[in-house]
Amino acid sequence: MYQSKIAGMGYYVPKNIYSNDDLTRFMDTSDEWIQERTGIKERRFADRTEETTTTMAIEAAEIAISRAGVTAQDIDFIVFATLSPDYYFPGCGVLLQREMGMREIGALDVRNQCSGFIYALSVADQFIKTGTYKNILVVGSEKHSFAMDFQTRSRNVSVIFGDGAGAVVLQPTQDNHSGILSTHLHSDGADAEILAMYYPGAHANKWLKNKPSFPDQELGGLFLTSEQLESGAALPYMDGPAVFKKAIVKFPEVIREALASNNLSEKDIDLLIPHQANLRISQYVQKLLGLRDDQVFNNIQKYGNTTAASVPIALCEAWESGKIHTGDLVCLAAFGSGFTWASALIRW
């Protein structure tokens, strides 16, 4: 079996910067309130009509492919992670394949929200290790801004998220002491509804049946109603404190799992790149693991939470800024809606 290595990386964030003060034009909030709870100072929002989840992914993918020393025609397989696809179906993987003029290769879409990129990386890792493919494009891309409600009623959610994309190209290596050492994936759906976007969904008729105006019919129904839109039922929902409590348990747990499986410990980590969910979560995990500031990379202050895109954006930015060197032990970790959580340990 081969090991898989990250041969090239790239990321893209939109040019439109929205500071916390900018958001006060739309909702009752403040820079102090947002920073105290999340650590976020600003975020990027894609152009409303000209940029999509797929177009941002292409920007990141082109950089990653170039840095890997290959072309779009060399890519054997695509794994695309997002919770904000261009269409309800089909997924963004085939749209990226089409727009980049790739061959008729496989394209897999991953729906694991904040953990999506590490899940996608794990899938690609297995394909490389078994010799199935030689150049796999792994993408995390999100356009949250088009679905956010910028009113005071939704400020607990809408101040957190931003847009962007990150991508890597995985290739095989025969060096058994470098590359992706292991990946670790977990889920627990017991509390799935405390961080979710319920509509549109196949359960919509259950909600409508309790409404007096809902017609008694045997087949069919409304996918998304004006009443759901007006009431806010179709907006993302998050119980922030409950998510925080779970994240600070599962983040360190899955990091330690990765280390233990490779006979390593916290002191061996050169750089931890957590999913950029909340700076307070990252700081808590850092303290719990006994890591120095220079051992943890955070950029949520600039970009907000870009869910599936946050890990590859942070990874690429850390590498570009000279914080990752050959031989370094890099740990990626994420926790998010589902709940799902994951980690990956990489010897650079």
Automatic annotation (TrEMBL):
Keywords: Acyltransferase, Cytoplasm, Fatty acid biosynthesis, Fatty acid metabolism, Lipid biosynthesis, Lipid metabolism, Multifunctional enzyme, Transferase. GO terms for cellular component: cytoplasm. Residues 259-348 form the Beta-ketoacyl-[acyl-carrier-protein] synthase III C-terminal domain. Its EC number is 2.3.1.180. Pathway: Lipid metabolism; fatty acid biosynthesis. Gene3D superfamilies: 3.40.47.10. One of its GO terms (molecular function) is 3-oxoacyl-[acyl-carrier-protein] synthase activity. It is an enzyme of class 2 (transferase). Residues 276-280 are annotated as: ACP-binding. The active site is at residues 114, 275, 305. It catalyses: malonyl-[ACP] + acetyl-CoA + H(+) = 3-oxobutanoyl-[ACP] + CO2 + CoA. Homodimer. NCBIfam families: fabH, PRK09352.1. HAMAP family: FabH (MF_01815). This is Beta-ketoacyl-[acyl-carrier-protein] synthase III. It comes from Parapedobacter indicus.
